[in-house]
Amino acid sequence: MDDLILEIRVATAWVDYNGHMNDAEYARVFSLAVDAFWEAIGLDEAARDATGVTTFTLEAHICYLAECLEGQALSVRVAVLDRDAKRFHLLFSLYRPDDTLAATGEQMLMAIDRTTHRATTFPETVMQTADRYPVRDPADWPAQVGRVIGIRRQA
Questions:
Q1: What is the 8-class DSSP label of residue 19?
Q2: Are 58 and 142 in contact (CB under 8 A)?
Q3: Can you tell me the distance from the alpha carbon of 83 to that of 77, in angstroms, rounded to the nearest whole number?
Q4: Backbone phi, then psi, for 75, in 5-degree steps?
Q5: 8-46 exposure pattern, b = at least 16 Cβ within 10 A, e = fewer
């Protein structure tokens, strides 16, 4: 099972004219989950200041699977799909209280030198702490991973 990384509620301000969480707010929730992941592996604000290493998002893909309603409690779980010295390929899964998978957020994130704004390596202590999140076998990746946007045509 993936690791719980964030618990949050759908704020009133996040609800749109359709009566459910606006699409942009899913991105907000996944962004907060990214921050929670960095904190969990030791790359919090103090570590960023001390090491001069921050992170940038290189790519993100959200699949919207179910509605989330005002006030609803949500939980986000994280899976490490891949990683190397400079990048993490993560999958965040957003769940409603009834364990319905509401959305997935796939992200490619990179370590960045705060001075040069160029790629760098993650601090060794961060990589060691990240070992507690095993890399998921590609055979176990859900269908949402690696999707390409396009209109599916019937043959």
A1: S
A2: no
A3: 17
A4: -130, 145
A5: bebeeebbeeeebbbeebbeebbeebbebbbebbbbeee
Domains of the chain by residue range: 3-133
What whole-number distance in Å separates Cα of residue 80 and Cα of residue 27? 18
Instruction: Write down the pTM of the prediction.
Output: 0.94
Surface-to-core class of residue 155, CB atoms within 10 Å of its CB (0-12 exposed, 13-18 middle, 19+ buried): exposed
CATH superfamily entry for domain 3-133 = Hotdog Thioesterase (3.10.129.10)
- Which of 2, 3, 83 is CA-nearest to residue 40? 3
- Name which of 101, 19, 104, 23 is nearest 63 in CA terms: 104
Please list the residues that pair with 112 across neighbouring strands. 54, 119
**Ordered per-residue pLDDT tens for the chain, 155 residues:** 589 999 999 999 999 999 999 999 999 999 999 999 999 999 999 999 999 999 999 999 999 999 999 999 999 999 999 999 999 999 999 999 999 999 999 999 999 999 999 999 999 999 999 999 999 999 999 999 998 888 889 88
